[in-house]
Amino acid sequence: MTTISLKIPDDLASRLEATARAQQTSRSALFREALEEKLEALASESRPSLLDQSADLCGSGGSGIGDLASNPEHLKGFGE
C-alpha cells in the first residue's frame, strides 16, 4: 500500500475525525472509501453514452421509401 500525505483544512479534518469515530473506523479507511466513490463517479460521468458516440450517424441512412415504417405492404415476407 502506498502512503500519501496531504494537507486539508482544519474544519474538514475535524469532520473526518468525528465521522471516523462515529463509524468506528480509521480516518484512513474513511478517506479511502470517499476517494474510491469519487473516482468511480468521475469515471462514470466521463464515459460517453452510445448515443453520444453515434449521434452523427443517427438518421444518416435512408431507404428512399417515405412510408417504410407505416405501410404494411413493405412488411410482406418478413416473419414468415
TrEMBL record:
InterPro entries: Arc_rbn_hlx_hlx (IPR013321), CopG (IPR002145), Ribbon_hlx_hlx (IPR010985)
Residue span(s) of domain Ribbon-helix-helix protein CopG: 4-40
Entries under SUPFAM superfamilies matching the protein: Ribbon-helix-helix
Protein name: Ribbon-helix-helix domain-containing protein
Protein species of origin: Luteolibacter arcticus
